[in-house]
Amino acid sequence: VQLQAFGGGLVQAGGSLRLSCAVPRRIFSGSAVGWYRQVPGKERELVARIFRGGTTNYADPVKGRFTISKNTAASTFYLQMNSLKPEDTAVYYCNAENPCTPVGGYWGQGTLVTVSS
After folding, report:
1. How far is CA 16 from its chain centroid?
2. C-alpha angle with apex 65: 90 to 52, nearest 5 degrees?
3. Cβ neighbours of residue 15 under 8 Å, at least 6 residues apart?
4. What integer best gives the mean pLDDT of the chain?
5. Which end of the chain has the lower number of beta carbons within 10 A, N or C?
6. What is the DSSP letter of 26?
7. How much is the pLDDT for 35?
8. Nearest-CA neighbor of 19 among 96, 108, 116?
9. Does residue 101 surpass a pLDDT of 90?
10. Which residues of 89-110 are buried (b: 16+ CB within 10 A; e: fewer)?
11. DSSP E strand stretches across the chain
12. Is residue 100 predicted with pLDDT exceeding 90?
């Protein structure tokens, strides 16, 4: 199962981007969904996550700048990234996980976000 991530690109520091992730409907329902990011030489890290009931959590470096949301009818979730910094540069991956998915859930193909100074 492949999630489809969209929206990466090149932006100047202080700018904004919005990432989208389309999830198969049968998986989206009941899943916690989230965004992770990875830079070369480092482990993939959680950026933001939204649970089935709507509760969210964010990594400290992005609090107040990034917002995760979801559209259940469209089986899609989003990451609005504002006030971007060069250190936000990474490949961003979307993820969906529920008790019926494999351990770690399903992943998108990754979308590159590059923030220039």
Report:
1. 14
2. 85
3. 84, 115
4. 95
5. C
6. H
7. 98
8. 108
9. no
10. bbbbbbbbbeeebeeebbbbeb
11. 4-6, 9-12, 17-22, 32-38, 45-50, 56-58, 66-71, 76-81, 90-97, 106-107, 111-116
12. no
